[in-house]
Design a protein that fits this description.
single chain; alpha+beta; six-stranded mixed beta sheet; 17 helices; 34% helix; globular; ATPase_NBD; Actin-related protein 4; Actin
Length: 442
């Protein structure tokens, strides 16, 4: 049994958009940085051989390199918003997580290293780790995580907790329906007595990044282009007046350009978008007053109906088809909106707990902190749910809490005295192997 009372545990939540890390018992994560990595393939073998554990798995990383066998496992990773904000030649931006599953473990190690060594300044050997994981995490993924944590980082103890359960704990409930809308996807998961009911989990690939892409495409179709921060310089011609000069950087990769555009576009989305009170339709919103937003290069754009149309894709995914240039909408057409996912998930649960789930629907994740989203979801659910159900959508009034609810739940859980005997300790790992994680962390 591991009694980790002396040192505080580290809570890590690696999401598809941002990684949150900090100490258990605190009320917000210390470090929040993008969970993508910049990667440069190193062509010539350099003197500083980096101790990469095994070859890179991600096929994308070697696609552009001239000599892929030499470059295998030889790539320099840049992690953190500062490192990514600096443009480098031939730097690809890769996301190690695809559809909630880790596809590039080397990049994940880079992210963990950055969190421990540069953000929190801790030695992982000295702190137990509580990691948040997606509700649909596979057995291989969990075992691989445990193996890395014990073998590479030599942590004294580990616990893997499901995102939905942590969100539930953050609001002080053991039973609830968690609607977690993050960067890469939206997941609806029922939690009963602290356990996720796996058979009733519903998910959809529409998350914040998809909405950001839709917004970018929609603005481009109206002739507004978002210039990434690195692609221009501002010269002062007269005091207070600037002239924008485009910078020609031929070696910038397409993925870095997209990443930089996304940073600006997602800020526009967070500033001006809000969920409409009623389902969006072109004619009703055509002459809505516009909101202005100043881009980094100084030009001001006016955003009208898009402010409501983009968020409404969450409720009605087929809207995305009306935006010129949104690819793969054939996959989006059959998708369900948020209210349908909630009803579907609740109907797959046991009859006895449905009422309780309807009355405690929790919103979590960055995309869920959009204005008016809670009111709109509640309104739609009232129309579609059975008469007897009392529908209540709960969301913390504080958007920080909504964005970090998974992390906050982990922070609460790992600092409870009664939780200390639940840790999966190093001794147990050495005795039973990685597969024991299934028994220790249900």
């Amino acid at each position: 049994m591991y009694g980790g009372d002396e040192v505080s545990a580290i809570v890590l939540d690696l999401g598809s958009h941002t990684c949150k890390a900090g100490y258990a018992g605190e009320d917000a994560p210390k470090a929040v940085f993008p969970s993508v990595v910049g990667s440069i393939d190193q062509m010539e073998v350099e003197t500083e051989t980096e101790n990469n554990s095994g070859p890179a798995v991600d096929p994308k990383s070697n696609s552009k390199s001239l000599d892929s066998d030499k470059a295998k496992g030889k790539r320099k990773l840049y992690v953190g918003s500062q490192a990514l904000g600096y443009r480098r030649d031939h730097m690809e931006v890769l996301s190690p997580i695809k559809d909630g599953v880790i596809v590039d473990w080397e990049a994940v190690e880079g992210i963990w290293d950055h969190a421990f060594r540069e953000c929190l300044l801790v030695d992982p050997k000295e702190h137990p780790m509580l990691l948040a994981e997606p509700s649909s995490n596979t057995q291989q993924q969990r075992e691989r995580t445990a193996e890395l944590m014990f073998e590479k980082y030599k942590v004294p103890a580990l616990f893997l907790a499901k995102n939905a359960v942590l969100t539930s704990f953050a609001s002080g409930r053991a039973t609830s329906l968690v609607v977690d809308s993050g960067g890469g996807s939206t997941t609806v998961a029922p939690v009963h007595d602290g356990y996720v009911l796996q058979k009733a989990v519903a998910s959809s690939p529409i998350g914040g990044e998809f909405l950001t892409d839709c917004l970018t495409k929609s603005l481009e179709s109206k002739g507004m282009t978002i210039k990434p921060r690195y692609s221009f310089k501002r010269k002062e011609t007269r005091p207070g007046e600037f002239q924008v000069v485009d910078v020609d950087l031929p070696n910038t990769t397409e993925s870095y350009k997209l990443y930089s555009q996304r940073v600006v576009a997602s800020d526009i989305k967070e500033c001006v978008c809000r969920a409409p009170d009623t389902p969006y339709d072109e004619s009703a919103y055509s002459n809505i007053p516009t909101t202005s937003y100043e881009l980094p290069d100084g030009q001001t754009i006016e955003i009208g109906a898009d402010r409501f149309k983009i968020p409404d894709i969450l409720f009605n995914p087929s809207l995305a088809q009306t935006i010129p240039g949104v690819e793969n909408f054939a996959e989006i057409a059959p998708l369900r909106g948020l209210p349908q996912m909630v009803i579907e998930s609740i109907n797959k649960c046991d009859v006895d707990i449905r009422r309780e789930l309807f009355s405690s629907i929790l919103l979590a994740g960055g995309t869920a902190s959009m204005q008016q989203l809670k009111e709109r979801l509640e309104k739609d659910l009232l129309e579609e749910s059975p008469q007897a159900a009392r529908v209540k959508v709960l969301a913390s009034g504080n958007s920080t809490e909504r964005r970090f609810s998974v992390w906050i739940g982990g922070s609460i859980l790992a600092s409870l005295g009664s939780f200390q005997q639940m840790w999966f300790s190093k001794a147990e790992y050495e005795e039973h192997g990685a597969s024991y994680v299934q028994r220790k962390c249900p």
